[in-house]
Structure prediction request, 55 residues.
Amino acid sequence: MPGDREKSIARGADDCVPRPVDVDQLLTVVCAVLDPEGVEPSPEKHTEENEAPSP
Prediction:
């Protein structure tokens, strides 16, 4: 609804994702909240060397 985002922000929300949810927008907002500086972690390759040893 028009004005919902502004009302949410005014009440203390960091951002607002309206319905129907756009998954890309949702992930962008969640990432921005969790990492406000926008630093992306370096991708790690999944290899046997990265796995913990088995007991």
